[in-house]
Amino acid sequence: MNPSSLAAVRDFLAGQGVPVAGELTASLISGGRSNLTYALFDGVHRWVLRRPPLSGLTQSAHDVAREWRVTRALRHSAVPVPPAVALCADETVLGAPFAVTGFVAGQVVRTRGQLAAHGSASLEACVTELVRVLADLHAVPVDSVGLGGLGRPDGFLDRQVRLWWRQWNEVKSVDLADANRLHDLLTSALPARSAHIGVVHGDYRIDNTLLDAADISKVLAVVDWELATVGDVLTDVALMCVYRQPELDPILGLDAAWASDRLPPTDAIAEAYARRRGVDLDHWPFYLALANFKLAVIAQGISYRARRGAAADATSAQAERAVPALLAAGLRALASRAHSARGSASA
User: Fold this and answer.
1) Domain annotation covers residue 23
2) CA 21, 27, 28 angle in degrees (round to 5)?
């Protein structure tokens, strides 16, 4: 971020009544594949600024205003979030909308190497806590925190299928038969209704949280809310589970911590969530297939932005390598559903 941009951000913050002690400095926080994240420092105070990428935007996928609204709404809930400081919708200030939150001094666990310092019991406790936080998010009373208008629960799953299909067509580099087939099967397998409605994070996994530096089992804040909405919360659970696949490595450009085989398996995570909430995971193969399709589109979008010169880092272009395997996993999930249905019919 150049000096003139920092001066503009400083003037904006001061105009919002935020005490700024001196000139701002900024450093890009690595690890993000979508919105750009900067740590701001004025010599005394620290903040975090989030803004959309410089190019290659996909519709509704970089909404910092949505992030800020959700973070602010959850500030008194059981879900730990960074303190909301200010939102700037005026694009003349920085060339794009941006949101500023307080700086939370936790650790982001991104790589499998970071897990090496922790024993099996600590890792299991960490995952248990991550599941608890997600379950607490899904139990938040939507209207009482002011998020009733954030999404449209009716027809949520149908719109999700259509949204990710539209975004696939915006970012794809080539036509893939498996993408077409998976979209068609998702459309035909849509559940009649969503039984579990709440606040959906939309991108939940270990590295989208800030953990206590001294205790990996404590979540200090959940971050990266740009895809948050109100809808079917089982989409969150399924995506959290799908992120456990090896394909997360090329998407993030590293040996992803959440894909580590030292963490509990997908089925155990889903079952732990179901027990915590006291719910049934109805239509689970559909949710897994949708999550695989969503992650395939996200991976393709990362490479799309790289091709347009807006790469988050040098590894971004390789993200699309994960797409064929994710599409295949989605098809397998729906195939298991069909197999189960045939078995029930013949019983």
Assistant:
1) yes
2) 140
C-alpha count within 13 angstroms, C-beta hemisphere, residue 294: 25
**Structure-block tokens of residue 163:** 């949204």
- Phi first, then psi, for residue 38 (nearest 5°) are -125, 140
Give pLDDT tens digits for 72-129: 999 999 999 999 999 999 999 999 999 999 999 999 999 999 999 999 999 999 999 9
Q: At 20, which CATH number?
A: 3.30.200.20
* pLDDT of 313 strictly over 80: no
Task: Give a yes or no: residue 134 inside a domain.
Answer: no
Percent of the chain with pLDDT over 90: 81
Structural domain total, the chain: 1
Mean pLDDT of the chain: 91
Q: Given this model, what pLDDT does residue 101 score? A: 96
CA 37, chain centre distance (Å): 14
Residue 198: inside a domain, yes or no?
Answer: no
AA letter at 79: V
Alpha-helix runs per DSSP H in 229-283: 234-242, 248-252, 266-277
Asked whether residue 13 is domain-assigned, the answer is yes
Domain that holds residue 34: 3-102
Count Cβ neighbours within 10 Å for each residue of 324-340 and write b for 16 or more, e otherwise.
Answer: ebbbebbbebbeebeee
Could you tell me if 228 and 71 are in contact, meaning their C-beta atoms sit under 8 angstroms apart? no
Long-range pairs for 212-218 at CB < 8 Å and ≥24 separation?
212/106, 212/107, 213/105, 213/106, 213/107, 216/107, 216/109, 216/118, 216/122, 216/123, 216/125, 216/126, 217/122, 217/125, 217/126, 217/128, 217/129, 218/129
The alpha-helical segments, DSSP class H, found in the chain are: 3-15, 64-73, 91-94, 112-115, 120-138, 156-171, 177-188, 234-242, 248-252, 266-277, 284-307, 323-346
pLDDT average, residue stretch 19-34: 83
Confidence label for 63 from pLDDT (cuts 50, 70 and 90): confident
What residues form DSSP beta bridges with 46? 41
